[in-house]
Design a protein that fits this description.
With 308 residues, this protein is α/β, with parallel strands linked by helices. It has 3 domains: 2-11 and 194-290, Cobalt-precorrin-4 Transmethylase, domain 1; 13-96, 3-Layer(aba) Sandwich (Rossmann fold); 98-193, 4-hydroxy-3-methylbut-2-enyl diphosphate reductase, catalytic domain (Cobalt-precorrin-4 Transmethylase, domain 1), CATH 3.40.1010. The protein has 11 helices and 13 strands. The protein has a 5-stranded parallel beta sheet. Strands 3-2-4-5 form a 4-stranded parallel beta sheet. Strands 7-6-8-9 form a 4-stranded parallel beta sheet, with helices on both faces. Helix 8 runs parallel beside helix 9 (223-234).
Length: 308
């Protein structure tokens, strides 16, 4: 059996920045640092930061007065920002800059008098944050059927933005449905899908040409990791999402010659190595190689308080 690693895979610049913010904050200010929501969607990352002194909460009322608070990479609503300001909480914002870009686009569309439509998954933290940042009603759609069900007159001036971690193909079809439905519509095509999501999806499609099975390392609640698994299935290759090597079912790879292995944008490389070890326990003669693919060199700056 051989394993071919997708390139790129794993951590993106937004995730690296978010984790760095928590770690630098702990170094500079000491423990505890309170983080609203999982900093990124990965249990192993969260547990590692907990061990270093981070405390994760779902709501700000769980944060003691005066305690340093970090907003997760997914972004938060203006209501949360204002609540933190009211309480005088010192805040470090780890929102991914590409998510912040979507917030800015949405605000500009609304200020120009357009009704805003958000393409995304209900309940996802990024979606909730974007809806709460815009300062106006936001209509959420996930499918072409949702577009048809919108109670908005067809000649209404509308605009759309998208969750950054969706499948490009799914987003294209929904955007096409929006353009069929509305006569006065503006939006950013698929450029809101972040570079890392695009690159990982492209790599999985290429991996599917040679792999007999696809293994995606990532969390069940990670949108971009789920999209990678779905793309593998769409390409006709059995595809599975696992948190680490302990969840690998030997039956998935039995009799398979080539295993394609990738990781979502919030999954550390150590978990990929953990899955390789689990595969090597099945086949001690396992060969591991990496496909050619796009090299990512993007880095996002830390907040000013943590630089230097």
């Amino acid at each position: 059996m051989r394993v071919v690693l997708a390139q790129p895979r794993g951590f993106c610049a937004g995730v690296v920045r978010a984790i760095d913010i928590v770690e630098h904050a702990l170094e500079k200010y000491g423990r505890p640092v309170y983080v609203r929501h999982e900093i990124v969607h990965n249990r192993h990352v969260v547990e590692t930061l907990k061990n270093k002194g981070a405390q994760f909460v779902e709501e700000l009322d769980e944060v003691p007065d005066g305690a340093l608070t970090v907003f997760s990479a997914h972004g938060v609503s203006q209501e949360i920002v204002q609540e933190a300001a009211r309480r005088g909480l010192p805040v470090l914002d780890a929102t991914c800059p590409l998510v912040s870009k979507v917030h800015g686009q949405g605000k500009r569309y609304v200020s120009s008098g357009r009704t805003l439509i958000l393409v995304g998954h209900a309940g996802h933290p990024e979606v909730e944050g974007t809806k709460g940042q815009v300062g106006a009603p936001v209509h959420l759609v996930q499918s072409e059927q949702d577009v048809e069900a919108l109670a908005i007159p067809r000649d209404t001036p509308v605009a759309y933005v998208t969750q950054t971690t969706l499948s490009i193909d799914d987003t294209k079809s929904v955007i096409a449905a929006l353009k069929r439905r509305f006569s006065d519509i503006v939006g950013p095509e698929t450029t809101d899908i972040c570079y890392a999501t695009q690159n990982r999806q492209t790599a999985v499609r290429e991996l599917c040409r040679i792999a007999d099975v696809i293994i995606v390392v990532g969390a069940n609640n990670s949108s971009n990791s789920n999209r990678l698994r779905e793309i593998g299935k769409e390409e006709g290759v059995p595809s599975y999402l696992i948190a680490d090597g302990s969840e690998l079912d030997p039956a998935w790879v039995k009799g398979k010659e080539t295993v394609g292995l990738t990781a979502g944008a919030s999954a550390p490389e150590a978990l990929v190595e953990n899955v390789i070890a689990a595969l090597r326990a099945i086949d001690p003669d396992l060969e591991v190689s990496q496909m050619d693919g796009k090299k990512e060199h993007i880095e996002f700056r830390l907040p000013a308080e943590l630089r230097g």
